[in-house]
Amino acid sequence: MSAPPEPGPAESALLRAYRGQPVPHTPVWFMRQAGRSLPEYRRVRAGIPMLEACRRPELVCEITLQPVRRHGVDAAILFSDIMVPLAAAGVDLEIVPGTGPVVAEPIRAAADLARLRPLAAADVSFIDKAVRLLLPELGGTPLIGFAGAPFTLASYLVEGAPSRTYATTKALMYGHPALWHDLCERLAQITLEFLRVQVSAGASAVQLFDSWAGALSEADYRRYVLPHSASVLSGLADLGVPRVHFGVGTAELLAAMAQAGADVIGVDWRTPLSAAAARTGGTRPVQGNLDPTTLFAPWQVIEAEVKRVLADGAAAPGHVFNLGHGVLPETDPDVLRRVVDLVHATRPR
Length: 349
Ligand code: 1CP
Description:
This protein is α/β, with parallel strands linked by helices. It has one domain: TIM Barrel (Alpha-Beta Barrel), CATH 3.20.20. Helices cover about 45% and strands about 10% of the residues. The protein has a seven-stranded parallel sheet with strand order 1-4-5-6-7-8-9. It has a two-stranded antiparallel ribbon with strand order 2-3. α7 crosses α8 (about 165-175) and α13 (about 300-315) crosses α14. It binds coproporphyrinogen I.
């Protein structure tokens, strides 16, 4: 007798939680679960520049699968970077080890916008190939696609490198609002196309990372950023996949970010999940939000914090366990495995 067919991603705990449906266990995955915390990642990446690695479908497939195999998480997230579609759209940039994205010629004036052409699906055909390689390997485990939101992408393009203050970005935003909106419209097109390619190839959910939006006041967010993130999210509506919207330091922005049109709100560790649920109207599932540095604490502390996050997440119509931001490179992978097992063993309420 043949075994019953494996349930597909649509029936997975992740997709059920993202839709606010009852789950057999709280699903869990980790932002930046692939990458530098894993020795097997460091091995396969050795000598290959980051952007080059992202363009090799077999390597993307292998790196995406590594944390799924090792940790038993409920989702894979495509191994890529928010800068990949910008490089594919003609921007000269590099991801510098130990620093992050560095743009050769930052965008500061109207004439610079010409360097940002629209993205076509063919520009990122390597993504389509990688997703199609991944699907049979993943069985029923859902694949999450992702992209950077216009503000976060703009911050790298305008600053030219990671920033702490976003002073140049904000100067352009306040001083040249027409140029700012033109830039963000172009970025929204690129992001939308990048996400649509991932979903068309088989990703079951998407996450829009507006990692650095927390640098803005709510008023500025609503005026300069929300319309562009909303155009990305509404441009995905016909695909029918859950859309997660996440940023860091967004306590004051959660209501506005929810209004941008996401189905699920990602929350950093500063805001209790119950407060995040209340601030977003109590109608949306939440994702988060263990402080990533908690993973360096003694196990008893980690255990108590995981249980606190789980209990707090029960206030929302659905909860997907995650960290409040990405896995830090120094994290012990065995601790991540224990966290997954603990989340799975704790009865959802
Ligand atoms: O050589 C290396 O290993 C480079 C390190 C690295 C890795 C592993 C970078 C450079 N990007 C990535 C992969 C990556 N980037 C993933 C992997 C998928 C997974 O989660 O398993 C994801 C989701 C991203 C997304 C990303 N890139 C974001 C949004 C998420 C977040 O953490 O807020 C951002 C802001 C970036 C920019 C970026 N790329 C790389 C770095 C070090 C940074 C951050 C730089 C900064 O601090 O501004």
